[in-house]
Design goal:
By secondary structure, the protein is an all-alpha fold. The chain contains two helices and no strands. It has one domain.
């Protein structure tokens, strides 16, 4: 791989890391929101949707970590 393509990949890695940081922040906010749902509402659709969103966010963070790792292996 030539230097120009390596440079582009480094830029992509940086952008992906920034996006992952944003997703982690959103995930943490969602976790905090979920943790603060009163016990009497923990069997509701709202709670289930929040759990589902948290799961999707966790998965997205994990996938982006893997993508970045794969790109870094190229370097």
């Amino acid at each position: 791989m030539n230097a120009a393509r390596r440079k582009k990949i480094k830029e992509i890695i940086s952008k992906l890391n920034d996006l992952n940081t944003e997703l982690e922040e959103i995930r943490d906010e969602e976790q905090e929101s979920l943790d603060n749902i009163p016990e009497n509402l923990q069997e509701t659709e709202r709670y289930e949707k929040s759990e589902e969103a948290l799961s999707v966010l966790d998965n997205a963070v994990s996938v982006l970590d893997d993508v970045v790792s794969n790109f870094e292996d190229l370097m």
